[in-house]
UniProtKB/TrEMBL annotation:
It comes from Dioscorea cayennensis subsp. rotundata. Disulfide bonds join 30-222, 71-81, 86-92, 142-192, 150-160, 164-173, 174-179. The keyword Nucleus does not apply. The gene is LOC120253536. The keyword Signal applies. Residues 1-21 form the signal peptide. This is Protein P21-like.
Length: 223
C-alpha cells in the first residue's frame, strides 16, 4: 500500500457496515485522572486503574484514541480540557486539540489487515502503549518523558506541542509539496523511535504495524 493511501486511511474517518468488529480496552495507569477519548467511541472519565471498553466496526478508518488531561465537565457533559479537548464535550465527536498523544488505526484494510500506529504529529501529553491483546505479536510504545524534555518553544500547559501548531508553516505542517524531518520531529523520534513524528513520516514503514482483521487491542495511558 502506498504511503499516501495509508495516511489517508489513518486520517479520514470512514465507517463501513461490515459484520466484524474489534474491541479496544482503554486503560488508565496514570497516577492521575484522565478523560479518555475515541473517535469513533466518544469519551469517558478514567480514574487510576480504570478501563473503558469500546467496540469498533470493521472497515473503520481515520480512527484514534487519546487521553485528555486537566478536564472539568458539568452534569450535561460540557466543559473543557487542558490537553486533547474536543470542542468542550465529554463525549467526543471530533478529534482533540493538540497537544495529545494519539493511537491511530484503520481496520480490515488491504488484505484484511488492521493498520495501527502511535502518532506525535499532534504533539504529546501522556505516555502510551498500543498493542494487540491476542492473535498478533508486537505493539508500539512511547514511554519517554517528553513533557519534561520538551524544547521551550514547544512547551504547552500539560504537554509538548508539535511544531505545526506553534509555527503554522508548510515546513512543519507539510500541507503542500514535500517536507522532511526537522530538528523538532527528530526530537520526538529520538525519544520514541516507533512513532509518527511529522506528517510525512509514513515513508518510514517501521512506524506502522499490521495485524489480521478481527484482532482486539489495548491502549494504555502511562504504562
Amino acid at each position: 500500500m502506498a504511503p499516501s493511501t495509508l495516511m489517508s486511511l489513518l486520517l479520514f474517518p470512514l465507517i463501513l457496515p461490515l459484520s466484524y468488529a474489534a474491541t479496544f480496552d482503554i486503560v488508565n495507569q496514570c497516577s492521575y485522572t484522565v478523560w479518555a477519548a475515541a473517535v469513533p467511541g466518544g469519551g469517558r472519565q478514567l480514574n487510576n486503574g480504570e478501563t473503558w471498553t469500546i467496540n469498533v466496526n470493521a472497515g473503520t478508518t481515520g480512527a484514534r484514541v487519546w487521553a485528555r488531561t486537566g478536564c472539568n465537565f458539568d452534569s450535561s457533559g460540557h466543559g473543557s480540557c487542558e490537553t486533547g479537548d474536543c470542542n468542550g464535550l465529554l463525549e467526543c465527536q471530533v478529534y482533540g486539540k493538540p497537544p495529545n498523544t494519539l493511537a491511530e488505526f484503520a481496520l480490515n484494510q488491504f488484505q484484511n489487515l488492521d493498520f495501527i500506529d502511535i502518532s506525535l504529529v499532534d504533539g504529546f501529553n501522556v505516555p502510551m502503549d498500543f498493542s494487540p491483546t491476542g492473535g498478533c505479536a508486537g505493539g508500539i510504545q512511547c514511554l519517554a518523558d517528553i513533557n519534561g524534555q520538551c524544547p521551550a518553544v514547544l512547551k504547552a500547559p500539560g504537554g509538548c506541542n508539535n511544531p505545526c501548531t506553534v509555527f503554522k508553516t508548510d515546513e512543519y505542517c507539510c500541507n503542500s509539496g514535500s517536507c522532511g524531518p526537522s530538528d523538532y520531529s527528530k526530537f520526538f523520534k529520538g525519544l520514541c523511535p516507533d512513532v509518527y513524528s511529522y506528517p510525512k513520516d509514513d515513508q518510514n514503514s517501521t512506524v506502522v504495524f499490521t495485524c489480521p482483521g478481527g484482532t482486539n487491542y489495548k491502549v494504555v495511558f502511562c504504562p
